[in-house]
Design a protein that fits this description.
The complex is a heterodimer of chains A (397) and B (380). Chain A has one domain: 3-Layer(aba) Sandwich (Peroxisomal Thiolase, Chain A, domain 1), CATH 3.40.47. Chain A has eleven helices and twelve strands. The termini of chain A are close together. With 397 residues, chain A is α/β, with parallel strands linked by helices. The mean pLDDT of chain A is 94. In chain A, the strands form two sheets. In chain A, strands 3-2-4-5-1-6-12-11-7-8 form a ten-stranded mixed β-sheet, with helices on both faces. A two-stranded antiparallel ribbon of chain A has the order 9-10. In chain A, strand 7, helix 9 and strand 8 form a beta-alpha-beta unit. Chain B is an alpha/beta fold. Chain B has ten helices and 13 strands. An eleven-stranded mixed β-sheet of chain B has the order 5-4-6-7-1-8-13-12-9-10-11, with helices on both faces. In chain B, helix 2 packs parallel to helix 5, helix 3 packs antiparallel against helix 4 and helix 8 packs across helix 9. Chain B is globular, with a radius of gyration of 20 Å. The chains are: A alpha/beta (397), B alpha/beta (380). The interface between A and B is large, with 63 and 66 residues.
Chain lengths: 397, 380
């Protein structure tokens, strides 16, 4: 089956680094972390941890949720960047990754209920993960398929891959795709219960890494069939050239220590893109900062890339681990790398783990980038890798 | 490859279901939310007995048990051929493991974040069911979970069909399910009331009272799907030959135009070179709510006219109540009916169709309240 090329014509991002692509770029360039104190909801853990909380300035409309607000903010920016007007896109699809949906509002409801109050059940209206997807479609007037994917921390990447499938198979011409998640008591306490949250902020791939830092945010990319984009003379940022999946199938949370599933996902993405390992110039690693994940991912990278490991960095200390948004946010980082020919620092690195077999990028630097890879791995052993290529010489699927 | 089967569709190699115990029973509602009872369709408390080992079961949430049990039955039904990098898992769920999520959060709030329970957090994750299925059967291929209200199952099925079509996997376990929880029942009651009268569902029944609202339920279904001509079960004779999922022009039930619905169903049949005249049975997602029943009634009249023959019409939600992924149970019944070549006694017939009652082709059709409609074409 001939597959259609998937161009990226719009970018929108909101995170601890700011509300725009420009603010994100400036922070990546300056090596400025977005990690800071948690103020979004009451928690005993505030004094002990750092999180990537979206700065003030985001408007949460009435009859909405924070998750929906993040998604709509990113989607609107992506649509504007792509030159697509609101409300005139009856066939445009929306595919988002989400793990927590309106959980932040549901938690407030539950606190009030357990305190003996009579909270308004209407506050649960936006509880589901699909609520943000529906909100984006409704507010931007996008009338096509709506899909929400919840593949744990791989959700954002998985959503982009699903959107890529829709375009590559001819089921859609334009898809708003990405991921969104907010900080919640559920995830904060959940990851703390697993003893994988670092006290002083995550330090991916560092010899003394202690764990991850949670974050929140949203990123939406406008994916568009290449000829459709060219016919309306849209600016093409780059191409989503390939995507690959796998499942470790060994444990509910821990990765395969050898990273065999991760390697299969990366190899699958390369194969789908028609590229070889040596074609990749930069890997935006999942690099959550937990001992187990970083070790497994490094093993997978070593085996696949052998003696030609490209530039590697994890950007989790910039944003925090934004769960379902991570794959989408890091896809934006990848596109920026292709456009700016610069790769971001592996922020927080003091001394690289000697077992990695490669040296992560110490500071944001100039690097020729024609093809880059983004890794996203999640609970359940779910692995998804994406390959992006340059606009000028994008390799087709 | 079998030339009669369009490559984008799949063979059903195995089917599995977990259905509620009948009749529906009263479900106690939280006192903080008004208390009282609501009639509900609940599955057995231990649905996994005989399928999932106790050692595995004690680590799983109710939804995981429902979906894993359905998957076990499907894999067993399909001959047990599923494992390795070519085996994918696709799960649809409207709300995930809601019970585990509530349990974890209530504990966090009540004990002011002291020593939260990691096991409950792990099982609260939406893709916990897909993970459990992958681990149980060693499915190392693509593993995806879709969660989008009442179209979650259709989206999961669509993802599986795409992965099969593109050759990323050889075989897939597609599962869907949702668990009954009082919080969800209370929340839904706020925007879409359950029926006040404690009367079991009889969708589209000419003799039952026309009541406002449906009844909540739970359940799970699973399918082992293969690629036509693949190395799975060559004897598998039932195929999914068409899947349609589309937003309706109008989200309100009153705005549904029968001619649009007929056109939609014809579009689903078209890739398989079938028409409405080929449909032996149309299985509806009607849930007993009088307003929704009325819409189905109008559409079925129009479909019958377009089919130009004796169309059997059936419903199934009297078996399971209403929940986000109930349509998966409908597809399982459809697949089973085609496999057996006859009308199943579980399916309640609204119209009896052809005199010989031979069933080779079933079209499932659901009008979703979230502004979508879906249909699936199952045939030999």
């Amino acid at each position: 089956m001939p597959r259609r090329k998937v161009a990226i014509t719009g970018l929108g991002i909101v995170s601890a680094l700011g509300l725009t692509v420009e603010e994100t770029t400036a922070a990546l360039e300056a090596g400025r972390s977005g990690l800071g104190p948690l103020t979004l909801f009451p928690s005993q853990r505030r004094q002990h941890i750092l999180v990537g909380q979206v700065p003030s300035g985001l408007t949460v409309e009435r009859d909405s949720s924070r998750s929906m607000a993040l998604a709509c903010h990113a989607a609107r920016a992506a649509g504007q960047d792509a030159g697509l007007a609101d409300g005139a896109q009856e066939r445009t699809a929306v595919v988002l990754g989400a793990c927590t949906g309106g959980m932040l509002e549901s938690e407030a409801f539950l606190r009030e209920l357990l305190a003996g109050g009579s909270p308004d059940l209407g506050r649960l209206r936006h509880h589901t993960c699909g609520s943000a997807t529906d909100g984006v479609a409704a507010r931007l007037g996008l009338g096509g398929l709506r899909m929400t994917i919840s593949d744990a921390c791989a959700s954002g990447a998985s959503a982009l891959a699903a959107a890529g499938d829709l375009i590559a198979c001819g089921d859609a011409d334009v898809v708003f795709a990405g991921g969104v998640d907010t900080l919640t008591a559920l995830t904060l306490n959940g990851f703390c219960s697993l003893l994988v949250v670092a006290d002083d902020g995550c330090r991916p791939f560092d010899a003394e890494r202690q764990g991850l830092s949670l974050g929140e945010g949203g990123a939406v990319l406008v994916l568009e069939e290449e000829q459709h984009a060219l016919s309306r003379q849209a600016r093409i940022h780059g191409y989503l050239a390939g995507w690959g999946f796998s499942c470790d199938a060994i444990h509910a949370t821990a990765p395969d220590p050898e990273g065999r599933g991760m390697q299969r996902a990366m190899a699958g993405a390369l194969d789908a893109a028609g590229l070889r390992p040596s074609d990749i110039d930069y890997i935006n690693a999942h690099g959550s900062g937990t001992v187990d994940n970083d070790r497994a991912e490094a093993a997978a990278i070593r085996r696949l890339f052998a003696d030609r490991v490209p530039a590697v960095s994890s950007t989790k200390r910039f944003f925090g681990h934004t769960l379902a948004a991570a794959g989408a946010i890091e896809s934006v980082v990848c596109i920026l790398s292709l456009e700016r020919q610069r790769v971001p620092a592996n922020l927080g690195l003091r001394e690289a783990d000697a077992d990695l077999g490669f040296e992560p990028v110490a500071t944001t630097r100039a690097t020729p980038c024609r093809a880059v890879m983004s890794n996203s791995f999640g609970f359940g052993g779910v692995n998804c890798s994406l390959v992006f290529t340059q606009a000028a010489e994008g390799a087709g699927r | 490859m079998n030339p009669t089967v369009p490559p984008e569709f799949a063979t059903i190699e195995g089917l599995g279901q977990v259905r509620p115990t009948l009749p529906p029973q009263p479900l106690a509602m939280p006192t903080g939310l008004g208390g009282g009872e609501c009639l509900a369709y609940a599955c057995p408390a231990q649905p996994h007995q005989g399928c999932v080992s106790p050692a595995v079961a004690r680590r799983l949430s109710r939804l995981q048990l429902l979906t894993l049990t359905a998957a076990h039955r499907a894999v067993q039904d399909g001959g047990g051929l599923i494992a390795g990098p070519g085996a994918g898992v696709f799960v649809g769920t409207g709300l995930g493991s809601l019970g585990a999520t509530v349990e974890f959060l209530e504990d966090v709030i009540r004990r002011d974040e002291a020593s939260p329970m990691p096991a409950r957090f792990i099982t609260s994750v939406h893709n916990a069911s897909a993970s459990a299925i992958a681990i149980e059967f060693q499915c190392q291929g693509e593993n995806r979970t879709t969660t989008h209200d009442s179209i979650s199952f259709e989206l999961a099925l669509g993802q599986a069909l795409t992965a099969l079509r593109l050759g990323r996997i050889e075989r897939a376990v597609v599962a869907a399910g949702d668990e009954l929880h009082p919080y969800h029942v209370a929340a839904m009651n706020h925007c879409q009331p359950w029926r006040k009268k404690a009367e079991a569902l009889a969708p589209l029944s000419p003799t039952a009272a026309r009541l406002h609202g449906s009844l909540p339920g739970e359940g799970a279904a699973a399918f082992v799907l293969g690629r036509p001509g693949g190395n799975g079960r060559p004897e598998a004779s039932v195929c999914i030959r068409g899947l349609g999922l589309a937003p309706r022009p109008a989200a309100d039930l009153g705005g549904i135009r029968t001619e649009d619905e007929v056109a939609f169903l014809q579009k689903v049949l078209h890739p398989a070179n079938a028409t409405l005249a080929d449909v032996d049975l149309i299985l509806l997602g009607a849930d007993g709510d009088a307003a929704l029943d009325a819409v189905y009634g109008r559409v079925i009249q129009a479909v019958g006219a377009a089919a130009g023959g004796d169309l059997a019409v059936g419903v199934f939600k009297h078996l399971c109540g209403e929940f986000a992924t109930a349509s998966a149970l409908g597809l399982a019944l459809a697949g089973d009916a085609v496999r057996q070549g006859r009308l199943l006694p579980d399916i309640a017939l609204i119209a009896s169709g052809r005199a010989d009652n031979r069933i080779d082709n079933v079209l499932t059709y659901t009008i979703h309240r979230n502004g979508f409609h879906s249909a699936c074409w199952v045939s030999r």
